[in-house]
Specification:
Strands 1-2 form a two-stranded antiparallel ribbon. It is elongated. α2 crosses α4. It is mostly helical.
Length: 143
């Protein structure tokens, strides 16, 4: 059983997947920072300083108001956190866009490599040394 597990772990696909998960987690942190530190302030600039992450509606409340979404959640109030959802959608769209661009670049590189291979395979082979020597011999015999 242990040998079988070692063989499974040693396969390239498992290691590739592990690297992908680790890189994905790091990439998620970068995207979250980009949204929180760059995009949210820009959105706030155009919307008059509105921060979407703290936009919420108290559901079935007793009239109590809360200064932030986290304060409402800590108090146990039922909240409809539409701002947090909007930011999650924006995060998803940014991640999807970046992944799309990465896949596009990788596909271009693969296509270019495939075209180079086709060009090398399709290139007509030149004459061999024997062919050239035979031509030289025949031309010397004729003269």
């Amino acid at each position: 059983m242990l040998k079988e597990f070692k063989g499974f772990i040693a396969k390239g696909n498992v290691m590739d997947m592990a690297v992908g998960i680790i890189i994905g987690a790091a990439f998620t942190a970068i995207v979250k920072s980009m949204v929180a530190d760059l995009i949210n302030p820009l959105i706030g600039l155009f919307t008059g300083g509105v921060d979407f992450t703290n936009k919420f509606i108290i559901l079935g409340g007793d009239g109590t108001t809360y200064s932030s979404l986290s304060a409402a959640r800590e108090a146990g109030a039922g909240v409809f956190a539409y701002g947090a959802f909007a930011m999650a959608v924006i995060n998803f769209l940014i991640i999807a866009w970046v992944v799309f661009m990465l896949v596009k670049v990788v596909n271009k590189a693969k296509d270019a490599a495939a075209k180079e291979e086709e060009a090398v395979e399709a290139a007509p082979a030149g004459p061999t040394e024997i062919d050239l020597l035979t031509e030289i011999r025949d031309s010397l015999v004729k003269s």
